[in-house]
Task: inverse folding
């Protein structure tokens, strides 16, 4: 309980110019964030028979689909050092993380209109809730990947620790992407369609279900500058020892692009935040 | 910020943009123009302006300034659309003011609805924690009050049942119970007193008085003037976005009541009656009624506690069937939700009568 003689003074005034969100305030709201993550997680799987199985449902089913389509019909297995299901599932995990974070972060304010108009919670909390939820879902799916690796007798290597790094890059990039659109989505509901379209297009230029060595001349060196492509190549190397670890320059570029995107997105989000309750 | 104040509101204004009403053809043309210039819209959005061009600014709050001293309960009154809720939204930081500044000392909590964050699928217990967290209570706070909350709400047996299986009354009681044990230093409340049955309302109002006895500051928006009268230390009256007055509860509540009741009166303090009751039906015919203050001035607005002289002018005829001297027993009751004055007098004159009542 706060002390009654507290002299903390809250000053409420019109927003001025560009600024970053107050991260201390977000940190103070971490109890709310955890409660929401717990609530959403509980609610998502309540009154289902499958329960948390649905956390891996999408990437798993997509993996089966692509295994049948590309692996069996189009012979994508050829030239791969690991079984195609492992090859695609490993990438689909991070890809699902990316699309879910971007799309859910974009709609996180509009989905919580009731709350936003009735109580003040630092608005940055809402996209963060979605990010945490997806990270949790990713963790469950990751366990399934580990199980699959055991089934396929895939050896575990020391470089698996790099997974943390690549997932972190993916998270920063996705959150930045989603945050950039979240504030605008409150005004123009077109944004979620735009984000879906961008995601779909990115899916084709990112080697999620195909091997990057299949890319033709200029693209086989350029594709890596797509941060998600770097993350996926990195994940495949860390988990399955496919190919080489992404080189330093593309790695720094991916980190730089992701961090810059997140910073810009935070500025834009903060710019739109003060009046978001009026336009939702 | 002055040390004795909990809230200082300084020239606060809030402008909303409302779509201008235009003819259909012009409206279509405008939509097309705006659709084809997304860049202009983006620029307007980033500048915090209306994104769809020509819209009329409406001042929901216009240069409002007042202070709330520490430990006081302030009632915000005013008609619908007077800006009460907008001001409360600014105080609770839901939306930012367009200009001006608000300073609040201490932890702020707002109850703009009961059960914010409630989820149908969660059990009563889970919702208590969820709602508490959303309000800003720590887990320790909730644990400390947990038994009191269930006791207050009276849902003990259904604690582990999903809220969607609750009756609507149970849901509201549970939601309010959590709020009742929410103890920020500055509490902002919007009309939440109107939930539940009479007994529950009484308990919740009592809870609010307890809050301020602990030295906490409360701001309440309510249309329930008797609740305002009995619980608020001071009142701020908003009229069309402007602060009409702030101060003594009884005085301002009366002024507000009178302003909204007698607004359309044409003759100050005098009302002429014609043909209310056809004179051939009854012997009593009311001709006029005047109200005076104690200085014998005719006036129509009176403050609580002021003496009112009421004069009735009438014609009293003796119908054929009446054998005794005609007399009128006057039993009057003036007031809105409760009597402002009551008259019980025997009138024997046949012309007019005057009597003094006191506003209560």
Result:
């Amino acid at each position: 309980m706060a002390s009654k003689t507290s002299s903390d003074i809250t000053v409420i005034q019109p927003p001025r110019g560009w600024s970053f969100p107050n991260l201390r305030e977000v940190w103070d709201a971490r109890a709310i964030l955890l409660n929401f993550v717990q609530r959403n997680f509980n609610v998502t799987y309540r009154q289902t028979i499958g329960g948390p199985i649905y956390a891996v449902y999408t990437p798993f089913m997509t993996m089966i689909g692509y295994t049948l389509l590309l692996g069996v019909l189009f012979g994508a297995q050829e030239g791969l050092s690991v079984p195609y299901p492992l090859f695609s599932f490993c990438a689909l995990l991070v890809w699902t993380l990316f699309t879910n974070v971007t799309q859910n972060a974009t709609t996180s304010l509009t989905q919580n209109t009731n709350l936003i108009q009735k109580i003040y919670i630092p608005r940055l909390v809402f996209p963060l809730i979605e990010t945490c939820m997806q990270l949790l879902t990713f963790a469950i799916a990751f366990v399934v990947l580990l199980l699959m690796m055991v089934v396929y007798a895939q050896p575990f290597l020391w470089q698996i620790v790099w997974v943390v790094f690549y997932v972190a890059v993916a998270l920063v990039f996705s959150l930045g992407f989603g945050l950039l659109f979240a504030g605008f989505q409150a005004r123009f509901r077109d944004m979620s369609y735009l984000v879906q379209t961008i995601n779909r297009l990115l899916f084709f230029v990112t080697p999620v279900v195909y091997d990057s060595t299949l890319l033709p001349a200029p693209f086989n060196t350029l594709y890596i500058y797509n941060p998600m492509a770097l993350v996926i190549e990195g994940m495949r190397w860390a988990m399955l020892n496919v190919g080489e670890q992404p080189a330093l320059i593309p790695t720094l570029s991916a980190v730089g692009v992701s961090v810059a995107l997140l910073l810009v997105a935070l500025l834009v989000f903060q710019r739109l935040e003060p009046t978001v309750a009026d336009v939702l | 910020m002055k040390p004795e104040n909990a809230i200082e509101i300084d020239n606060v204004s809030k402008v909303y943009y409302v779509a201008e009403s235009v003819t259909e053809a012009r409206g279509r043309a405008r939509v097309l123009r705006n659709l084809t210039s997304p860049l202009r819209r983006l620029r307007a959005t980033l500048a915090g302006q209306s994104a769809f061009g020509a819209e009329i600014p409406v001042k929901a709050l216009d240069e409002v300034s007042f202070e709330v001293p520490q430990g006081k309960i302030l009632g915000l009154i005013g008609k619908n659309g007077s800006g009460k809720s907008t001001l409360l939204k600014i105080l609770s930081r839901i939306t930012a003011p367009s200009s001006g500044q608000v300073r609040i000392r201490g932890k702020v909590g707002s109850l703009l609805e009961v059960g914010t964050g409630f989820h149908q699928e969660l059990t009563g217990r889970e919702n208590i924690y969820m709602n508490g967290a959303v309000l800003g209570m720590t887990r320790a706070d909730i644990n400390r009050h947990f038994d009191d909350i269930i006791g207050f709400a009276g849902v003990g047996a259904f604690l582990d049942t999903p809220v969607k299986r609750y009756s609507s009354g149970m849901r509201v009681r549970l939601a309010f119970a959590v709020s009742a044990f929410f103890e920020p230093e500055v509490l902002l409340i919007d009309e939440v007193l109107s939930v539940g049955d009479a007994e529950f309302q009484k308990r919740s109002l009592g809870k609010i008085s307890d809050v301020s006895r602990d030295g906490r500051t409360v701001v309440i928006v309510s249309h329930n003037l008797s609740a305002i009268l009995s619980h608020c230390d001071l009142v701020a009256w908003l009229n069309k976005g402007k602060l009409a007055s702030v101060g003594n509860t009884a005085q301002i509540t009366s002024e507000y009541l009178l302003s909204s009741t007698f607004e359309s009166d044409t003759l100050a303090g005098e009302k002429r009656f014609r043909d209310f009751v056809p004179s051939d039906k009854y012997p009593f015919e009311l001709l006029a009624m005047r109200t005076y203050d104690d200085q014998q001035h005719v006036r129509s607005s009176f403050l609580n506690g002021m003496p009112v002289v009421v004069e009735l002018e009438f014609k009293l005829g003796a119908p054929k069937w009446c054998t005794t001297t005609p007399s009128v027993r006057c039993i009057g009751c003036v007031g809105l939700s409760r009597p402002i004055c009551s008259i019980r007098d025997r009138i024997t004159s046949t012309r007019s009568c005057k009597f003094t009542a006191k506003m209560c």
User: Anything to note?
Assistant: Residues 262-267, 328-348 of chain B have pLDDT under 50 and may be disordered.
